[in-house]
Design brief:
By secondary structure, the protein is mainly α. It has one domain (about 10-285). The chain contains 12 helices and 2 strands; from the N terminus they run H-H-H-H-E-H-H-H-H-H-H-H-H-E. It has a two-stranded antiparallel sheet with strand order 1-2. The chain binds fe (ii) ion (2 copies).
């Protein structure tokens, strides 16, 4: 029987991203190429198993089913600050590698954005960008919540991490979905493209009425590494997407590399974030 939860916790995927995309400010260029070459060989078995499941099951039909189920937002409703507490239930104390809970990661991201003087809605994006991980608490397996995202309904790019695992996906040999453009037209724009299911699309759908478009792109595509790091899907992007991806790229390092050992305490930060959340978001969130 397959174990649908190979990761000790969701952060294992994010720690693995740091192996694949090390902080450019912290390593010399020659080391970077070396790290890249060894990445697949050095990936932990649990992470590999996680990608194997993700790539096998994220098919076009699977995503449509999840969208139908979860985009009704009929499962839970709670005040937004309770939603952060709910998300924090994801922490796994048994894992010695993880020292940050979800809320700490969100605050580190948002505080780094705030310290660099970006607009307040981008600070808010930092604070909420992983809220979609509540999917795990609603019974979804890890491979349906985190991991790199990618378009479905067309050929899987070989620039996606561990592309060889896609051969077990039912769409891999599908008459239409295995084609370069699949169900899409060239440069149709990402608003017409269905992405693999996970926390990015879910939080985007949750927030789409409340934030400027740049912020919504950051939410929706923050795990779309094969595009924002490798430009693998330029053939589906339109000019507007390219413009907005500059914002996705601006956001990404804050998500990956914001680790501040001298983070202010929540008591100190609370007044600012209470006001910020109130400015943009409704009182309650629906899951
Ligand atoms: Fe994320
Ligand atoms: Fe994140």
């Amino acid at each position: 029987m397959e174990n649908p939860q190979p990761l000790a916790n969701l952060d294992e995927w994010e720690m693995d991203l740091l192996q694949r995309y090390p902080d450019p400010n912290k390593i010399a260029t020659n080391k970077k190429t070396e790290a890249f070459r060894d990445y697949e060989a050095e990936t932990k078995d649990s992470v590999k198993e996680f990608y194997r499941l993700n790539h096998q099951y994220q098919s076009y039909d699977f995503v449509q089913q999840k969208r139908t189920d979860f985009l009704k937002f009929d499962k839970r409703e709670m005040p937004i600050w309770n939603a952060f507490d709910f998300l924090n239930e994801l922490v796994d104390d048994s894992d010695p590698d993880t020292d940050l809970d979800q809320m700490q990661h969100l605050l580190q991201t948002s505080e780094a954005i705030r310290n660099d003087g970006h607009p307040d809605w981008m600070v808010l994006v930092g604070l909420i960008h992983d809220m979609g991980k509540v999917l795990c608490l609603l019974g979804e397996p890890q491979w349906s919540v985190v991991g790199d995202t990618f378009p479905v309904g067309c050929a899987y790019s070989d620039k996606i991490v561990f592309p060889e695992f896609f051969k077990n996906n039912p769409d891999f040999e599908h008459e239409i979905y295995s084609q370069k453009y699949g169900v899409y037209a060239p440069h149709c724009g990402l608003s017409n493209v269905t992405m693999s299911w996970g926390h990015d699309e879910y939080v985007y759908q949750m927030m789409k009425d409340y934030l400027p478009e740049q912020g919504l792109y950051m939410l929706r595509y923050h795990s779309f590494y094969s595009q924002h790091k490798e430009s693998a899907y330029d053939h589906l992007m339109d000019a507007h997407d390219h413009e907005l991806f500059e914002w996705v790229k601006l956001f990404n390092p804050y998500d990956l590399y914001s680790k501040n050992p001298n983070q202010k305490s929540w008591e100190e930060l609370k007044p600012y974030y209470t006001a910020l959340v109130k400015k943009y978001l409704p009182e309650t969130l629906r899951f």
